[in-house]
Amino acid sequence: MPLPTPLQGIRVVDFTWVRAGPWAARWMGTLGAEVIKVEWPLNLDTLRQNRFTVPPGVEPGPNSTGQFADTNANKRGISVNTRTEEGLELVKRLISVSDVVIENFSSRIMQRWGLGYEQLKKIRPDIIYVSMAGFGHTGRYHWYGTMGPAAQALSGLTHLSGLPGEPPAGWGWSYLDDTGGMYGAISALTALRHRSATGKGQHVDLSQMITGITLTGPALLDKTINGRKGRREGFPPGNRTVWPGAEVVNNYRGPIAAPHNAYRTAPGGYNDWATIACLTDDEWHGLVKLMGSPGWADDRFDTIDGRLDHQEEMDEQIEAWTKTMGKYELTEKCQSAGIRAMAVQSSQDRVDNDPQLRHRDMYVPMDHPMLGPWKFQNAPFKMSKSPARMSSPPPMIGQHNRDVLEDLLGVSHEDLLDGYENGVFWPSTMDRYPYIEEALR
Amino acid sequence: MTSANGNQSNGSSGQDGVDIGGARSADLSLPGALDGLRVLEICDEKGQFCGKLMADNGADLIKIEPPGGESCRSFGPFLDDIPHRERSLSFWHYNTSKRGITLNLETKQGQDILKQLASNADIVLESRKPGYLESLGLGYDVLSADNPGLIMCSLTPYGQTGPWRDYVSSDITQMAGGGQMASSGYDEIDVPNAPPIAPGGGNAWHIGAHYAYIGLMAALYYRFLTGEGQYIDASIHEACALTTEGAIAIYLSTGDVVQRHTGRHAAPDMSPAIQFPTGDGGWLNTTRSGTNLTPQRLKLLADWFDQSGMAEDLTDERYQDPEVIASENDHIVSVMKNFFMNSTLMDAFHGGQQRDFPWGAIRSMDELVGDDHLTDREFFKEVEHPELGRTFTYPGPAMLYNGSPWRISRRAPLIGEHNSEILQGELGLTNSKMLLLAEGGII
């Protein structure tokens, strides 16, 4: 018998779309909550239309993208038009039997639907309501919109990354969609503990942009306390802790250290790089020994000051050595000598070449109705008594209408069929998919 | 991601002043969400942020440091640039709302004290090397023997099992293995042949901490249902590997590997650049909407640019045709770039947002302090450091809890600050016992 999941019995109404919101609800589902995603086919979740993740040979369509699949696994899905009276009424009925509501619309959308916190509380007094707007629901710019990259820019995160004297590099993907999603789950779970202790629900008003600011702590304190300028020479220092020639100050990645960089490895392809970081003089001497105690690595490099003074030469020489081997060989050599090192891993490396992720079951196969056997990203922790679980592929749009509307909400089969005819459960302008017809039989 | 789902918000109606139509933080006289939970934290830089997330929500968190203090007290920057283990701003930030004791866990007396503390704790969070606490007789089985409701989380670089379990790491090596670096760098037009670049700020530790926190909160709910505690083996490597947006799904779908580019969504091809310089030396991130223009949105831009005579020909009727917009994309982008170069960063940012373009100004710490919106949300918190007679400004929370306040209840603990309060006040150790522990190097 499988072990129980930790959030058994919790029901989540998921109004979210795109990435951050769905990712939040996805983890509630992976931890065992029953997540019901509410959608409407005429306002398709943009990940259902993601142009990069329709596998070759799969018929394109809203149920065929890999990115939607992973972002929405372990959920059920219904299609309801909340702009009809009946649709809105059913959504309210769903909320009345649920524990958590999560949404990531612009602020005030839910209020306009009559589903602001004050109204939600009337429907379900102990409801936990997590809103995930870009700037939050409170504050003068609450109505500003963000997607991850813009939120990263505004939060200060982008400015912390890149090479000095060049444009900010920031993050080459949407860190604050992933991490904004984490904070959506963090908010819901924190409020859930409060409810367990007090019986009370609440509104958690999360801001994706401010989430980023909370991840700049030491840099922000260096500003508010020491008055150090954020825009300064030699900052940000790339992969190093201090840029060669720049003032020796801490640039917020742990202790000042050298070497601390990415180095090319054989055979010199796009992702043939590895990182090495020596945080102490002892670690440096270990690396020197590993490199065969070459003549260049003399006493100029014995101390951190010397290594910072001669960083360019040191990095060039280290790279001459790293280029003689592959990134995994380098990693193993360094690690066997206690040196902090790791290959720069692409997505392909993580899925196909990383023995640790394989050992830990990071990618869990499940059958997906359109994509076939498909790998889903597992939780990054093992819980001994109530593990996270990959329980189902993502819902095809409207897939669970009958289960949810009839079995959970008590809609009669006749009313369900009527709702399909009059645009409540499916747009009258759109053909129904075969799986929908089948479910209605 | 928060666009309006076909039901646009007040958009160009302009800012509507201070708006508290969302949530307000619950009154500070109320308990926090994790009030009543006792947490023991045995963590360096890898786990201290997870501890902060709990402590600022009201958990009674006792940080257990080695005599002399935790190693990450030596991380700069330091107060007034004077290096000292009580002046690390990094340590200050990551250890708010905690109390602290010192304890040498490699001695029998230290171990006995930890066991005593664990016997009525709710959570133990630790980030020591895999197997280390167990080797001292302080594994989960021992600590939970008389406390079956105990939840213990080990947050380590690669987890407790597997071929890499004993690998050593730092923030940058975790970002290499996790995939952050393979996705981050520059467009060729910005910096040719740029290396993969690890984003700054210590985010591998943050990413690990977020997932550890989620595991802990889930375990708390399970304990609420069943009374049972459990052990959680959390891996920073796995947490980072999960945090690369679409990279894995793209690879699984098509075999394509994402490219490095400047500051935008993950993509396997070189999608259009979206980061543009402004006249005052700033940079504007236009997400990707700059090249996703409908005729209506193009007109909004054209009318705006036209107010300063910089629309060129974009007000022309012929741009009210999606095909023309597509074929003239390069020209449209060049008009935008020219406008931005004649604008200030904040004017371009606000002007765009007021027309529903979800753009972001790239702000440094210099621009964050004093921000109006953050002030409306009472984001910045004044924290007193009584031993210095000074008060400093700290960042607040990402979210407002309207039923259970988030708060920094105290500054980070001094080394061993609460030894007496906890070891004598709670465990009842005598003055002479404390003296012997101190002289024996145990506290």
Would you give an account of this structure?
- The complex is a heterodimer of chains A (441) and B (443).
- Chain A is of the alpha/beta class and 441 residues long.
- Chain A is built from 18 helices and twelve strands.
- Chain A has helices at 20-30, 66-71, 85-96, 109-112, 117-123, 148-155, 175-198, 208-213, 217-224, 281-290, 304-309, 311-322, 327-336, 347-353, 355-359, 401-408, 413-421, 434-440; strands at 11-14, 34-39, 76-79, 100-103, 128-133, 202-207, 260-264, 273-277, 340-343, 363-368, 372-377, 381-383.
- In chain A, the strands form three sheets. Chain A has a six-stranded parallel sheet, sandwiched between helices. A three-stranded antiparallel sheet of chain A has the order 7-8-9, covered by helices on one side.
- Chain A is elongated, with a radius of gyration of 26 Å.
- Chain B folds into two domains: 22-244 and 378-439, Rossmann fold, CATH 3.40.50.10540; 270-277 and 283-361.
- Chain B is built from 17 helices and twelve strands.
- Chain B has helices spanning 48-55, 89-94, 108-118, 132-135, 140-143, 171-178, 203-226, 236-241, 247-254, 295-306, 322-327, 329-341, 345-354, 365-368, 372-376, 419-424, 431-439; strands spanning 38-42, 60-65, 98-102, 123-126, 151-156, 230-235, 275-277, 283-285, 360-361, 381-385, 390-394, 399-401.
- In chain B, α1 packs across α7.
- The longest helix of chain B is centred in the middle third of the chain and has 24 residues, at 203-226.
- Residues 1-16 of chain B have low confidence and may be disordered.
- At the A-B interface, α1, α2, α4, β5 and α6 of A face α2, α6, α7, β6 and α8 of B.
- β12 of chain A pairs antiparallel with β6 (230-235) of chain B.
